[in-house]
């Protein structure tokens, strides 16, 4: 069940995964800024912000039952996959945790997009 209505209930697991992914990306972004190899992480840091923003937009489109929610979630899955790949290039716990959240979100977004 959605937070306020039954209407978003079938998308709730995707909404939850997107929210978790966005939070993980922002937390990882902050942690990466404090790493000594900041220059090596530039692409990853950029991807973290793009992924978080895309996840937030996906939540919004699903919550309002937007007519392009499926297409949006399909693109979100691609971005989450890319972000997971970037994060997996680093051995930090925050990057590994973020990569897993991104992969989980990508999986949920693919499910949602196929509905």
TrEMBL record:
Coiled-coil ranges per UniProt: none
Highest taxon of source: Bacteria
Residues making up the signal peptide according to the UniProt record: none
Entry-linked PANTHER family: CYTOPLASMIC PROTEIN, CYTOPLASMIC PROTEIN-RELATED
Record's protein name: Ferredoxin
Organism: Anaeromicropila herbilytica
